[in-house]
Structure prediction request, 679 residues.
Amino acid sequence: MADRKMNATPLVEIRNLKKYFEINEGFFKTKQLRAVDDVSFEIMTGETLGLVGESGCGKSTLGRTLLKLYEPTAGEILFEGKAVKGKKELEQFRKKATMVFQDPYSSLNPRMTVADIIAEPLTVQGYFTDEEQKKKRVRQLMDMVGLNTEHAARYAHEFSGGQRQRIGIARALAVNPEFIVCDEPVSALDVSIQAQVINQFDELKKTLGLTYLFISHDLLVVRHISDRIAVMYLGRLVEIGPADEIYDHPIHPYTRSLIKAVPIPDPDRAAADKEEGLKGDIPSPLDVPTGCVFRTRCPYAKDECAANMPELTDRGGGHLCACILK
Amino acid sequence: MEDIKNILSEIESSDFDKASDEEKKSAVRERPSTTFFKDGLRRLSKNPLALISFVLIVLVTLAAVIIPFVWPYSYDAMLGNVPGKSMDMSYNNLAPFEYSRSEQLRMDQGEQVFPHIFGTDASGRDYFIRVIYGTRISLTVGFFASLIVLIIGLIVGSVSGYFGGKVDLFVMRIVDIIYSLPDMLMVILLSAVLKESLGLWIQGTVLESIGSNMISLFLVFGLLYWVSMARLIRGQILALKEQEYVLAARVAGAKGSWIIRKHLIPNCMSVIFISVALQIPSAIFTESYLSFIGLGVNAPMPSLGSLCSDALNGISSYPYRLVIPALVISVIVLSLNLFGDGLRDAFDPKLQK
Prediction:
């Protein structure tokens, strides 16, 4: 993956992005849920950034806030160097940034034919006035993702999970986007289908020159497809760096435990591996620990960890980590 | 040995050739894609009770529409009252298939006289056509009242559900207020007030022929009964708008109206259908009830409720005049309810086996 030509200009950049939800806790009482807290990173043109973390750490919220599906509480989103603010910019943004969703069952409207689903972005954006041309484009898209074009008139429930996800990909590609947020696009699929869909993503990226933000909780999948990996914990970015670097030399104890948790397909090696994985559950995002968010589960936690959340610091080669450990 | 040779001689090497694309195509059986509605209709057609109810509804509706055009008697003609002649009292209060004196006379002369199937009422009007007309009125009220309820409920419910937040809070408090009013009391009050004020308003317009009472009935339905529909649709939309296909549409840049029209409403259509099917009988029932207490349609227009109420005066002598319209109301309301239940069983995804 490393041989890919990478442009040095960031396509997407987020600065101090925050998304808090107000949770009702009884009459007139609300509490803040910090789903995404002060996250900054950039994604270069042609790059795939993998975003990992356990369930409920704010990965999906980050992806959705990045696409302005949720109004960010604070922070900036820059696309091609320009802030996505106001109606006009958002309209332009919608033509260049799309999304592939997690659940291939709820992401397709059961009352629409496949052709209508794929053509929806085109219709909404008013791309084609000529119906015939629109149909041609839909057939082309179906071809591109490996769907039988004769099935255009069918409904989504007549397809398998993998095929449904391909429909979702075709829809995301309809407007010829430059950037796609993939929100756990393979986690609902069988392992064999996962490989097909992942390879599809890879191929499309090569042919169309796409840029991905690839959200997943599966480290192996993310390593396979990503150029860089970002690790999130409780709404915070704890580590970010080149994929192989993160995988082979993780610094943050959380990243280490995540990599540790990947099953080893060899019983002898698995048995020899004595170091224990992470204990306990992720704390509620309603009651985030003071200081470093990870300190309640961190095996190396010290007193100073309770004081402040460590800043992301450069550990060389674009590898950033938010931990006091060296 | 001989057998095997025979079999082998029948096999040709071409049998082992790969199938051509054409041959493959013929093996694939294309089936038409089933939509949600086709699927539901298939399930509905297996429910005999719902089918019988549906046939009954269709029959009653057709009868109410067609019979008044072909029936020789009119609903408001007092048959004994012919201009230029003295009142023929023998037309009044005829029993079923009984004839008046003049009709008897004409029949004796060999003339064909159309029988009064249900007899006539106290003013000498053919009772059968009055019942048919009453059915027509009741069905019209039921259908249009439900339509009004549907339109208002759909708009308010979907807007409130989709936009949520303060809009939702505001609309739902209004709904709560209307919900907490005793509806029958409100219906009676509104009908009584509107009857007076509307009468002057509509004088000389087309609406006058419908009658102020009918209009006030529709208004009452429009004002009061949309709340449950709005609540139902809001609940559906609240659940549906979290679906990922709605997010997908928003990523594509779709506006609120597009999402409501293309994604949300089509997906709660089955629930809407069912509740409309169940709304019609309740509207018919309310109309009958109001007509019974004298707040319904204007005389001489009959409705099933006013027929029942008129029949009360002569209940000991002519009990069938109460039984017939009451029976018709029961048949309509029961079959609509059963059909609505059948629709729900067939289309509600939560009840699917």
